[in-house]
Amino acid sequence: VSAERGGYPHFMLKEIHEQPKAVRDTLRGRVSDDLNRVTLSEIGLDEEQIRNIDRIHIVACGTSWHAGLVGKVAIEQFARIPVDVEIASEYRYADPIATENTLIIAITQSGETADTLAAMREMKKRGLRVLAITNVVGSSAAREADSVIVTWAGPEIAVASTKAYTTQLAALYLLAVHFGQVRGQIDEATAHEMIEALDNLPQVVEAVLDTAPQIESFAQRYAHAHDTFFIGRGIDYAVSLEGALKLKEISYIHAEAYAAGELKHGTLALITDGVPVVAIAMQPDLYEKTVSNIVEVKARGAFVLALTWVGNEDLEKAVDEVIYLPKTLPALAPMAAVIPLQLLAYYAAVARGNDVDKPRNLAKSVTVE
Ligand code: G6P
């Protein structure tokens, strides 16, 4: 059994460590050798169709929905197409407002989640185009969608999703750059810089995995916590949500993610002496604002673990512990930031003696509504 797990004690840890390869496999063949273009012929949309898209609805559940939240920020920033990200079980009953040029993107690792399939079917019935991003080639989502972007994460066994999420991010980043290029929102030099950064993501992920011992030591000291808050701004907030979910799913520590600027509108009441706060500060443009939110929680006694880019030692003055992550384009930072959050959930769950790969009450794929 340990052989199946490649020598790792759990599938989850194995899958966390497979992420550099999974991301590399997902990018392979989709960026040109000169790093000037993204090729996604599988989406089956010509340039005119891409230019005509007036809105995108992303539908998904769980971790795939969280990937969609990152995708929204990237697509809106790079391609300037408005994106709504909807929970599939809500979307299907919401009588969504879509035009004939609305593109539906369904994100599903398994391709078998009943809620996501139902949302896809509803929109297909209305004659809309559905693009699936899935990890399973022959899945129901892959068969029923008009076109498919396959994430090449390989089989994901642990219930808590890790490598599926990062490969979904890779697919969404590719799509964002591709749409941005076709729609003339990104000039050639910027496109080159972005594609170079995308191509470098597997190395970024690899380097972040070196923080594992630091996270493990923190997790052992922290595993008795009852609550944890994750804060960030912009795309850092999107990845905070995934960090909180991961922690809840396997460590059973209550966690909430908050847009850092929203804390003062209520949540600060819950920050008392010793409450752990994980602060994600990967956006240089929003950095000062995030630091002022960190100061607010420190003033109430929080213990703050912060993630920031290598070289930003300034943060050490404001927090209790810093984890340095390689610098990438700010929009791509979730790819780096999610890794320590996955590791934190993993090591906290191990320290609490939980069944990491099969957490209570959760299924890998929920094929009933
Ligand atoms: C289940 C799993 C989650 C997963 C969600 C969506 O709830 O426990 O980890 O994110 O389904 O799964 P999908 O296969 O559609 O991405």
TrEMBL record:
Top EC category: transferase
Active-site residues, record numbering mapped to chain: K364 (for fru-6p isomerization activity)
Catalysis: reaction(s): D-fructose 6-phosphate + L-glutamine = D-glucosamine 6-phosphate + L-glutamate
Transmembrane stretches, start-end: none
Highest taxon of the lineage: Bacteria
EC number, UniProt record: 2.6.1.16
SIS domain mapped to chain residues: 46-185, 218-359
Assigned GO CC terms: cytosol
Keyword tRNA-binding on entry: no
GO molecular function, one term: glutamine-fructose-6-phosphate transaminase (isomerizing) activity
Alphabetic keyword roster: Aminotransferase, Cytoplasm, Glutamine amidotransferase, Repeat, Transferase
Free-text function comment from the UniProt entry: Catalyzes the first step in hexosamine metabolism, converting fructose-6P into glucosamine-6P using glutamine as a nitrogen source.
Protein name, as recorded: Glutamine--fructose-6-phosphate aminotransferase [isomerizing]
Organism from which the protein derives: Alicyclobacillus hesperidum
Whole sequence portion shown: 241 to 609 of 609
